[in-house]
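User: Study the shape:
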Amino acid sequence: MHLDLSGLRALVTGSTKGIGRAVAQKLAACGAEVAINGRKPADVTAAIDAIRKAVPNAKLVAAPGDAATASGVAEIIKAAGDVDILVNNVGIFEIKDAFEIPDADWTRLFETNVLSGVRFTRHYGPRMRAKGFGRIVFISSESGVQIPTEMIHYGFTKSADLALMRGFAQALVGTNVTVNAVLPGPTRTEGVEAMFASMGQKVGPEDERKFIESGRPSSILKRMTTPEEIAEVVAFVVSREASAMTGSPVRADGGVVMAIT
């Protein structure tokens, strides 16, 4: 489906790599002006260069800053300016024994994965409401529904993102500002490859198959998704055509979640 996002401006947090970068590239390809965010200015510059190679006519803005801090969010907002589309994508995860997760790790994941979305939505939501149009998406995860034992602090933050999505959608009732969540399943990103490397594994086809069979046996797709596949879903959810969708969890999890609603 061709989606026309021309005339709209988007901010995708954590968009120098992985799902965030794929989303930013897709939105740019659909005609949106996109603010690219990452903690390191050099990473933002590299991402902009890479996206422009793939989408020569891309309209991109650098918005570096640490989305996990209030001061960083303020810097990002100042660089990004007013936006019509907000994709709360930035997130971190790690494998850790349930009983060995210290307070600092709970706090670190909460501030990055949850509080960042609160701060950006708190800023942009009322402005979108005043304009009479806006699209807000939280990138949650199937891990927010079926909590992974090996990283329950991550699952907790993704459950929290679903609560935020629904609450903010209700707070923007009847405004033509939609708030939804997209729930990817296991996705082959740089972060997942680093996780595999920490376990002494590569992300080859056989390793991927074994991971799905042991870690996500309910998967119907029986493979990891790609960031580009998730980006296609996000692009539709933020489009003008998706005006009837709000307050909804949109699963792009390959059937991992064992529920029909």
Q: What stands out?
A: The helical segments are 18-29, 41-54, 70-80, 103-131, 152-171, 190-198, 205-215, 227-237. DSSP finds eight helices and seven strands in the chain. Residues 95 and 199 are 10 Å apart (CA to CA). The first strand starts at residue 9 and ends at 12.
